[in-house]
């Protein structure tokens, strides 16, 4: 019998144009489902991989945000059935990568899209909701117990200042909303001033303009009465644009979690990007600062998150209005390849500000 195939978007060479490859449609094995991918999102990782070759073996299918319909279920699947509308962070191997017409994934990487939400809205969540939970709990040791019960005690650091550098990024917006829900009430962030109102509506108590020369003195002033900053989530990872300023804000005893890679030099149409993977070595830190590089790809090591984060926690937070999806922009194009390429080009031109780029996969 002929093997079924479908179209996938691949990075084929460093800084080259994206290409389409026919890849096998893998029948779901035990515990897996086959999903027709209807919408996906393009994220900075696609750019890091295409332009910087970060963790890539060519030709490699891109994408890790899936939104679509279950079309086949494997043995032992318990929570999903054919016809379910699902969303998830799916990334580990070719059959799971989301920039293709079908993905084959275990059901623990998917949640059902709650009533009232479109697949475009839903696909803005998975990779950065998962990244926020992983970075906050694993790298900053901020507990986010699930479920929150009336008996759940107030968190120990509920009034301590927590800095989310880059609040208007997708991951920054989700981290703010998650921290607010878990009772953290002193959330400081940085962004362009145009996002002040949005970020305050998501839980930020103060928003500072990271391009202003007053940014660092103003943050230092704001945290001085609390004994300084003890927790920082760097959602940008730029050597000059976030790590250097953050290094001026923290001292002994502070924990800093940096979303990798460290961007040593941003790429453009004419310049190659440069990345590093050691946030501690990237800039000079004061003695006693605990700097961690965030690697969300390890979140499945947490058994509770493996079983519950995508299937249960993420859909519940969305359904109950605790988390609002990112604003999104639909990237148009007449073919799958055109849409994928247009999204990547927009990322390279640094057009993304407070929004997620989403595009249609299966016609
Ligand atoms: N290692 C991991 O596990 C992991 C997981 C997820 C994401 N990441 C990485 O995290 C980074 C962010 O991802 P994302 O999807 O959230 O990005 P994104 O939404 O595309 O980020 C765009 C935002 O970045 C903001 N920004 C740019 N430079 C800034 C600076 N110097 N200071 C403060 N804000 C700045 C912009 O703010 P304004 O428009 O307000 O100026 C813009 O809103 C990417 O490099 C990604 O690869 C890593």
Automatic annotation (TrEMBL):
<protein>
    <recommendedName>
        <fullName>Enoyl reductase (ER) domain-containing protein</fullName>
    </recommendedName>
</protein>
<dbReference type="GO" id="GO:0016651">
    <property type="term" value="F:oxidoreductase activity, acting on NAD(P)H"/>
</dbReference>
<dbReference type="InterPro" id="IPR020843">
    <property type="entry name" value="ER"/>
</dbReference>
<dbReference type="InterPro" id="IPR047122">
    <property type="entry name" value="Trans-enoyl_RdTase-like"/>
</dbReference>
<dbReference type="InterPro" id="IPR013149">
    <property type="entry name" value="ADH-like_C"/>
</dbReference>
<dbReference type="Pfam" id="PF08240">
    <property type="entry name" value="ADH_N"/>
</dbReference>
<keyword id="KW-0560">Oxidoreductase</keyword>
<dbReference type="Pfam" id="PF00107">
    <property type="entry name" value="ADH_zinc_N"/>
</dbReference>
<dbReference type="InterPro" id="IPR036291">
    <property type="entry name" value="NAD(P)-bd_dom_sf"/>
</dbReference>
<dbReference type="InterPro" id="IPR011032">
    <property type="entry name" value="GroES-like_sf"/>
</dbReference>
<comment type="similarity">
    <text>Belongs to the zinc-containing alcohol dehydrogenase family.</text>
</comment>
<feature type="domain" description="Enoyl reductase (ER)">
    <location>
        <begin position="16"/>
        <end position="358"/>
    </location>
</feature>
<dbReference type="InterPro" id="IPR013154">
    <property type="entry name" value="ADH-like_N"/>
</dbReference>
